[in-house]
């Protein structure tokens, strides 16, 4: 029944203006606003809805992963734009001084948006 539906995901924030500035200016994403909500226009025609919620609670899991061909370069570039990467010490996902997890599987680094939602850059081979 829904197999052909162009489904999309969404998540809440507590400050739409701060979210727009972060996603558009800091991360460099194409962001539009309509009906009091943001749409993040991601590669591959994958829109993500961002909406304001007065009693917003940050997600306790990664809500959005950005595949990149080089996590080191992505971390360096985003850090230069003011993104602060999470550091997990003494856990099964322990990260290094840059915030990169190197404990098996793909390299990944987590950061948060202004609302506290967790995002990541994750190393993935380039398609093609």
Automatic annotation (TrEMBL):
Positions of the VOC domain: 5-124
Name listed for the protein in its UniProt record: VOC family protein
Entry-linked InterPro entries: Glyas_Bleomycin-R_OHBP_Dase, Glyas_Fos-R_dOase_dom, VOC_core
Top-rank taxon: Bacteria
Signal peptide limits: none
């Amino acid at each position: 029944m829904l197999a052909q539906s162009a489904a999309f995901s969404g998540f809440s924030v507590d400050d739409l203006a701060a979210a727009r500035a972060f996603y558009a200016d800091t991360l460099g994403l194409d962001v539009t606003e309509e009906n009091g909500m943001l749409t993040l226009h991601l590669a591959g025609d994958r829109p993500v809805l961002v909406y304001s919620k007065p009693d917003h609670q940050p997600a306790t899991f990664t809500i959005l992963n950005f595949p990149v061909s080089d996590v080191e370069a992505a971390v360096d570039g985003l850090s230069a734009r003011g993104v602060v990467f999470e550091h997990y010490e003494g856990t099964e996902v322990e990260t290094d001084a840059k915030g990169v997890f190197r404990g098996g599987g793909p390299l990944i680094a987590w950061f948060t948006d202004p609302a506290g939602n967790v995002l990541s850059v994750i190393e993935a081979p380039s398609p093609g």
